[in-house]
Structures are given as C-alpha cells and as structure tokens.
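Illustration 12: Methionine aminopeptidase.
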Amino acid sequence: MTTCAGCGEKEASRLECPNCKKLGIAGSFFCDQDCFKKNFQLAAQNEANKESTLPPSMRNYKFTGTLRPVYPLSPKRVVPPHIRRPDYADHPQGVSAIESTREKRIKILNNEEIEAMRYVCKLGREVLDYTASFIKPGITSDELDAICHQACIDRDCYPSPLNYAKFPKSVCISVNEVICHGIPDQRPLVEGDIVNLDVSLCFHSDLNATYPVGKIDDESADLIATTKKSVDEAIAICKPGVPYREIGNKIEEIVRPKGYSIVRRYTGHGVHERFHCEPNIVHYGGSKMPGKMEAGHVFTIEPMINLGTANLDHWKDDWTAVTLDGRRSAQFEETILITETGYEILTRPPTTTSSSSHKKKKKKSKSKAHANGTATPNEGDETPEAGTPTGEAAEGVKELHVNGS
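Figure caption equivalent — predicted structure in token form:
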C-alpha cells in the first residue's frame, strides 16, 4: 500500500503532486482532492528537503520508489589491529587478491576448514540475531551498523563487507524497495517498513533475513513468508549428486504461483576463505547452470524476491540495488555445507544437519516416543544437533591460519 503523502494515514490514490512530478520526484500521491489542496506544497517542500541531504552525484537521480537515503554517512568504523583482516581490508579499492585468481573447480573443504566454517557461521548467526533484536521504528540503519560492527569486534571477527570493493559499512541494510547492498545511513526506520540485514564475518560466514518494522501490511508479510519458504524448500533438496540448477527450479516452484518475481542479476555463491567464489547459485527456474553438489562444498542460497518486476536499477552510490517499479523486495540467506548424506545449515542456531540417515533416526525416535505415550521435545523441528563445534574445537579453530584472512 502507498501511504498518502499529505495525511500520512490513508491509502493514496493516483493524485500526484505536480511540483514533485516536475522535479522528477516519484511517489508523492494523495488520498483525495481536499488532502491534496491542503498538503501538496508541504509535501513538495519535504521532498526538496530530502534531496538536500544527498551528495551531488545523487541529486538528479530519478528514484524508483519513495525511499531516500539520508546523508552524511558516518565515518568508517575502526577494526582493532589484533583482529585478523582479509586481504582487501586495507586495499585502496577493496580488491581481494585471492578472489582475483579464478578457481578452476568448486573447492572441497577439508575437516579443519569445515570446523572453521561451523565456528564462524555460529558467530554470524549470533551477530545477526543480536543486531535484529534492535529493529524498531525510530532507529537508523547507521545505528544498526554500529551495533553489528561492535558485535563482530566483540567476537574477534572482521565484518566482511567493510571495504570489500570499497563498501563503506560493516553490514548491508536493505529497506523496502532496496533489493540488496543497501548502505546504512541516517534515515530512521518507520512503522510498516521491511528491512533486510545481511551479515558476514571473516573466514567467511554469510547470512541474512528480512524483518518487519512494527506492524506491516499483509502483502509485505506474505512476501517475507514466501521468500523464507522458498529458501527452506530449496535447502531441503540439497545432497551429493543434485545439480545446482535444481535450487532455482525449486524456488521458482514456490514463488511463481504467488505472482512474485525472482531477481536474476544476483546469485548465491561459494563461500569459505574467499568471500565470493564458485559455485554460482541461480535462484530462478529453467537455467542451464552446470555443476553438481559434492560432499565438502559450501555455498549460500539467497533468493531476492520482488512483489513486482524482477528488473532493477542502482542508486548513484555504486552499491544500492532497487526494484525498477519501486515495489518491495525480500531476501533470506543461509550458508550450506554438503555432507556425505545430505546437508548441514551452518548459519542456523545449533541443531541443523539433515540427511537420510538422520531422518530415519528421527522417525524411529518419534515412533518410540508415541509408543511410550510421550511427546518428543520440539517435535517436527528440522534443526537437530550437529553444526556447532565443541568448546575445544572452537578454541582450536580460532587459531586456524587461512590464506587471505
């Protein structure tokens, strides 16, 4: 629903402010003629004020929706020198040397590297959940960035986005029509927004989720639920021998009946000591993407689902991707390990392996419980116990040397 730019309460009609239209400012619509007469000058002034906070490079940009960034950005946050840094951390252009050398095949992680991934993905989940707990109307995305940054530092981890290809912040925060790579700024979140937090920690865990800000409309709630379901269903088919293109086929199966669209420009990816690498994971159906899953592969599944068109544009900040029609977008992301018999979701809270043998055990234990007249705790929960290293293993992983980190 588009809210009236005058009263800020009712649903807007197609009655647009002529001054805003002349200035190329999209989204200034009013609920009725009386509201328009009372408020159009004030609305135009408010839009002009929003423009005045923008850097010169963005002032003539025709925004696709109603969201506007609020500058200036805060200074780059400091990472203490004792924290191991990725190879792009201090590069003037944020270039990763190890990523500049293209891999010939998908890396199969050894046991030590898998333990490292388990450990850092556990920390990534902690950071995401902690940062998300502060989401509420009135908080700025820059304040959320500060919270996320400190949570990474408290865990002796480098926040992976910081200076990666010159990204200026420690977390990507994407609001409403922003598809991905939103730069945290001074705009306060408002009731009814939806916001995606995309958290990554070095040696690299990668995960994100979309959250409501206060009460949201039913359409946005369904978009979020459908996006989450598409990720869960896609993960459920993962095991050795499955072609990577089947991930997109499964997501399409969930999303298309709703009339939503799937962004094609951005994909999931391999992740370990390299932040982004093979395999590429497309999230739409009918692709000819080569490759099959093998035990030891680690990658992300992270579809970006839009209410309207899949087409996108970019703000003039080198990063922020937005829907071309200004309608909302949602995303969820998990980091997945392929095991000998199935998959392990590294970025979910403890208890997250799945395999055919695990399912059989689970079924057996459930039957036993029913036979004894008892209920199994958390019955139906698909997140069992493996995935979090023991304290001793975690301590050992901290000292693991990884090229480029």
